[in-house]
Amino acid sequence: MTSYEDVVRLLLKVLPMQYENNDNNFIEYIAVSILNSLACQVDYSEKQTQGDLGAIQVITYLSTGVQRRVKLVTATNVYRSRDVQLDGYT
Question: Which of 12, 28, 31, 62 could join 18 in a cystine, given CB atoms 3.0 to 4.6 angstroms apart?
Fold first, then answer.
């Protein structure tokens, strides 16, 4: 196992733990950024290794969760703004 593969495995192990913890999105952001940077700096076989280790599936899973969080925050903000407007008229 190469050091590149070790780093990718470690990052892929950290990402789901950060997502489930949901306290620190900054670590999630950094891990995805490092994975992306690594993929941009290596040759095809190492890119293939990153894909084989499941990087695409993990990042897709995380992005789906981020989209859900954005929709939830947006819906909450809309609800709150409507609630505040209604309170102002009663």
Answer: 28
Query: What sign for the dihedral angle of Cα 6, 11, 16, 22?
Result: positive
Tally of domains in the chain? 1
Q: Which amino acid is at 83?
A: D
Long-range CB contacts (< 8 A, 24+ apart) of 42-48? 42/4, 46/2, 46/4
pLDDT tens-digit series, residues 56-84: 888 887 777 666 666 677 777 766 766 55
Rounded to two decimals, what is the model's pTM? 0.61
Tell me the average pLDDT of the chain: 76
Q: Which domain range does residue 34 map to?
A: 3-89
